[in-house]
From TrEMBL:
It comes from Perilla frutescens var. hirtella. Residues 81-474 form the FAD dependent oxidoreductase domain. GO terms for molecular function: oxidoreductase activity. Required for the assembly of the mitochondrial membrane respiratory chain NADH dehydrogenase (Complex I). Involved in mid-late stages of complex I assembly. This is FAD-dependent oxidoreductase domain-containing protein 1.
Amino acid sequence: MAAFALNVALNPNPNGVVPHRRRAYSAGTIGISAPSKTSKTNLPSSSPSSTNYGQTHATRFRPVPVSGSGRVNESDNPTFDVVIVGAGIIGLTIARQFLLGSNLSVAVVDAAVPCAGATGAGQGYIWRVHKNPGSEKWELATRSHELWEDMAESIRNQGMDPLLELGWKKTGSMLVGRTAEECSVLRKKVEQLVDAGLGAEFLSCDDLLAEEPALKLGKESGAAFMPDDCQLDARRAVVFIEKANRYFAAEGRYAEFFYEPVTGLLRSESSGEVEAVQTSKNTLHSKKAVIIAAGSWSGSLMHDLLKDSEIELDLPVKPRKGHLLVLENFKSFQLNHGLMEMGYVNHESAALSSTTDSGTNYNANSASISMTATMDMSGRLVFGSSRQLVGFDTEIDESIINRIWDRASEFFPVLKEVSLADLNKSREVRVGLRPYLPGGKPVIGAVPGLSKTYIAAGHEGEGLSLALGTAEMILNMVLENPQTVNPAPFSL
C-alpha cells in the first residue's frame, strides 16, 4: 500500500531554547545531576536487576535485537503491532502492559535512553496523602497505586525483594501544616481520605514531633498522615521493568530503538491511517497502534509531525523545570517518613506571558518553592522542590538550590546550623522538566483524525504514581477492552 510522509522539520523546542545535552525530543524530561565523586550509586550485584549507574548510558542501555519467532520483521523496515515513542516511565510501562496483557509485538523508540528524563530526576514517591478523593485524577491515582502494590507483591512471591528490585519501601507520607488554619484544612482532608477507605489520620503538634523530632514548627502545627504509603527508586524501577520487557525480545515481541529521534509518520494515501514511524535510522511499521509518550516533548513533537497535514491538534504540553537537592552522609537528623508541606498542593503557577511579536516568553524569576523531604533507599536525604516555566532550559540554578535549602530550614531548624556551601562535596542536584498541561491532568487517549495513534502525556510530577493506570488505560483503548478507570476526563 502506498504511503506518504507527513513533512517534519523536527524542532525540539519551538520556543528557541535547545538543550545542548540532548537531541530532538526525549521521553519525559531531561535529568541532569551534578554528583560529587563520592555520591555515585551502585546497585548491589546480588540484585537480579542490578546495574552499575556509573556506566555510560550507551553502555547501560543497548538496543535489543529482534530474534526468535519471526513475529517482528528483521528487515530494514521492521514491523510491529505497537510502536511507542518515548522510553520514560510512561512509555516503558505501556510497553510492559502490552507484553503482559496481549500477544502483540512492541517497539520502544526514543531520542535518548530510559531514565534520561523526568523519571530519573524525581523523588520517587507514589503517595496519596496530598491527592483529592473525588477529583478527576483520583480514580486513576488509586488504580495506579493498587497496581504498584500488586507488582511489589508479585516480586515477593517470586522470592525477590521489592526493596532491591524497585527501591520499594513503606515510608508513610505526611502533608504538614504550620498554622491553625492549615491544620483545619488538613483535618478535613483526613476525613475525605478515610471516607475513601484509606487509613489516614491527623497528627497534632505533639504527635507530629514524636514521629519527626527534627520537625519543629510550633504548637499550631499538625499533619495529615498515611502510614501505609510507599515510595520507590525510579531508576531501579525502570531497570526492573525494562529487563522484564526484554525477556520478550527472544520471542520476537520486543525491540528498543534508542538514540533515534522520530522524524515523521507515514500514512496511507487511501485511508490516511498511520502505517509507520520514521526515525533518524529506521522505518518502524505499526499494524495496530502508535503511542506518543514523549513527556515534555510530546506537544512540540506532535506539532512538528502534523504541521503540514490537515489535522489540527491542541496539545499545549510545556516543560516545567524542577530542582531537587540530594545530600549523602547527612548526619544532622534522621527522616522517618516522606514529607511535604501543605503548600505543595497549591504550588503557585510559574508566570507565563505571551506577546504577539515573539510568541511565548518565560519568566525565569517566577519559581515557586515548596518543601518536600524524603530519604531514599541508600540513606540519602532528598529536598525539593521548585517549579518554573522556563522553556527547555535544564541548567542548574544555584539561587533555586539556596531557596530550597532555606525553605527546608524553616521546617527543620537544625539546617540553619549547617552551611550549604560546606556540603558541595557530598551533594547532587537533579534537574528535570515535568510535562505540564494547563488544568493539571494528563491527556490519555486517541488522537482525533489520526487513526491508530494515541497520546499519553502531561502527567507533570505524577508520571511515576500514574504510570501503571495510564498503561492499563491505553491497552484497553487499543484492544477495545472494558476500562477499569473512566478515560473520559483524559481525552483530547
